[in-house]
Amino acid sequence: MKKLVEISLGIVTSVGGFLEVGSMATAAQAGATFGFRLIWAILLGTICIIFLVEMAGRFASVSGHTIVDAIRERFGFNAFLWPLFATLLVNFMVMSAEIGGVAIAAEFATGIGFQWWALPVAFLTWLLLWKGTFGFIEKGVAILGLVTLCFVVAAVMLKPDWKAVAAGAIPSLPEHDGANYWFMAVSILGASISPYLFTFYSSGAIEDHWNKTYLGTNRAIAGLGMTFGGTISVGVLIVAALVLGAHGINQVNDYHQLPLLLIPTFGFWGFVLFIASLAIACFGAALEIGLQQAYLVAQGFGWTWGEDLKPREDPAFCGIYTLSLLLAAIPITLGLDPLKLTIFSMAVTAASLPLTVVPFLFLLNDERYVGEHRNGMISNAAVIFIIALGFVLAVVTIPLQIFGGS
Amino acid sequence: MAAMQLAAGISRDKNLWLWRSYLLLTLLALAACSSSEPIEQQSKIAASASQTAAMVVDAWAAGAAPSDYASAALQSTAEILAEARRQLQSDNSDQPGERRGVVTAIGQLSAAARRAQAGVEAGNPRQVGQALQDLRTATAELAAYTKYVAPKS
Amino acid sequence: MDLLRDLLDKQVVDRKQVKIGKVDGLVAELRPDKPPRIVAIELGAITLARRLGARPGRWMAWLAARLGGERHAEPHRIAWKKVRDIDVDIKVDIDVRRTAIFDWQDWLRDHVIGRIPGA
Fold first, then answer.
1. Are A301 and C108 within 8 A, CB to CB?
2. Which end of chain B has fewer surrounding CB within 10 Å, N or C?
3. Distance from CA of A203 to the nearest CA of C (A)
């Protein structure tokens, strides 16, 4: 019974982690421009993240190491610096985008420009990390995050042509805007396969004292939780296709277009629900990424870490999330467009994937860490596939976006 | 005691070349280029922006969107349209007739979005309704010209 | 035991299970006609910088001496005989509060973190 509660809580938590400004924005763009045709990218991203999250949880449960900790130990300090800096940078951009997401929700709600909200949002995030415990943050984000289910409800109420939806689950070549199509596919994959998600998950497993008895729980949470999150993303895409696309709005390049998503279905409540979903999803992600930055550095250098400790007991750990939140608020305060930042950082995330995923191939096959619970053929194939995917898509499409004139 | 540092250089051979070559490849790829047709692209952006403005106005009129939001969204849309127009004016190539038509239509769209914004701010549904009419007319014009300029798609 | 594989970069905890850092370097004694012997483990920024190269090592040593005084001009060393157990973590029989390893964290606590309400 306790395990069942844990599983359901874990599933809800993964939704909080999965759905953030990146998946919402990329799914909305893809739906508006290409209808249902990019659903396959969300499915593919979801399958990839299921594998990675399951491995991160299994690794932490069996070895007692977090992923970051083990990368340093297994590959040495000099090699560790590459994924460290890549992840710090990507996390900085994504966190900035999340703060921007909450800030535009606040702008929609109050009419006061989003720049003015960046610092208050960063402060509120910091306050929760400062005062809260891991369980409180995890569960709070999880339960509030359920509001994002309104996208699935809206998608069903719009009565999509389910045959067309199913057809979108199969990859197809675009008829028009090839460069844009592939760039969006990359952004969706980047939004689904966020490195902070699986590194955070492995730290969470250690914080929650997981051991080998949690392997089944881990598998259930990874599989069901990420599927749940992916379903909501597909919901956003369907709504975007049927609302924006059907109204001739094929280019989503302005964040002001986003609240229109739910208005035709729910009227004024749609506007409110959109604001709530955006604010909660992004706020939860900002919390998790703030913690993740601190985990990353503290685990990499072997300092005391843990969200349940008082700030006095791990001053360096708290110092890092304080500084990261402050820095991440700066671009938004200076007026950088949150939507553009989001799309760009999702593509950069995809490009950084090989750096963070290659270590999985070594760690999950190293018997000194995982013993008999090492990767099977399928998991290894999945890791290699993700590395190749991140590499090929990023290298091919980022230049298209930068030089293609968006 | 003959103590010695062993640490330096130890991890040199731990797959460092892998990270390095990846970075290099990414940078090389960034140097590659692609092209796009500006007029087609700008017309698409303009068409999408005009539909956005219409949808915002409809939502506002139905009481589903607050005035603050509607006004900010319309202002932003007007700016996007003005920018698209500026982009088209600045690069001069052939097809002057249809191109001028597209530029004029986008200009009208931008102005209509501004009027709609003013109407929303004044709480004047009549003015907003009038602006919506202008938006629709200019959208149709833009669509007609775009057909000439960009026959494909 | 493969020293580099099984020791270097592992987590070090002190007598009270406080995470004090990683094994950033190893100090070996060269003995004539006998294999070298590990005499100490090293922790801290200077050791890490030396792993990147001789020049970063000198810069970091200079910086550490400037910021922390003579006490910090050399890397922190823990004698090998203090190592008690090598498992997921390496347990050493010292009390981190009696060393200079956490001087900078103490400074951070006393001057920054501790001054924020709620710490």
1. no
2. N
3. 15
Whether the CB of A257 is below 8 Å from some CB of chain B: the reply is yes
Q: What does each C-alpha distance from A215 to A6, A200, A296, B74 come to in angstroms?
A: 13, 17, 24, 52
Q: Distance (Å, rounded) from C-alpha B67 to C-alpha B77?
A: 15
- State which CATH number among 3.40.1280, 1.10.287, 1.20.120, 3.10.620 fits the domain covering B38-149: 1.20.120
**Distance separating alpha carbons of residues A44 and A36, to the nearest angstrom:** 14
Q: How far apart are CA A68 and CA A80, in angstroms?
A: 9
CATH number of the domain residue C38 falls in: 2.30.30.240
CA distance A244 to C1: 63
Nearest to B56 among A248, A253, A260 (CB): A260
List residues of A whose CB lies inside 8 A of any C CB: 63-65, 69, 72-74, 76-78, 80, 130-131, 301-305, 310-312, 315-316, 318-319
Full domain range(s) for residue C21:
3-115
Give pLDDT tens digits for B95-133.
567 778 888 889 999 999 999 999 999 999 999 999 999
Residue of B nearest to C50 (CA): B8
With 80 as the cut, is the pLDDT of residue B11 above it? no
pLDDT by position in tens, chain C (length 119): 666 777 899 999 999 888 899 999 999 888 888 888 889 999 989 999 999 998 999 999 899 888 888 788 888 999 999 999 888 889 999 888 888 888 888 888 888 888 888 77
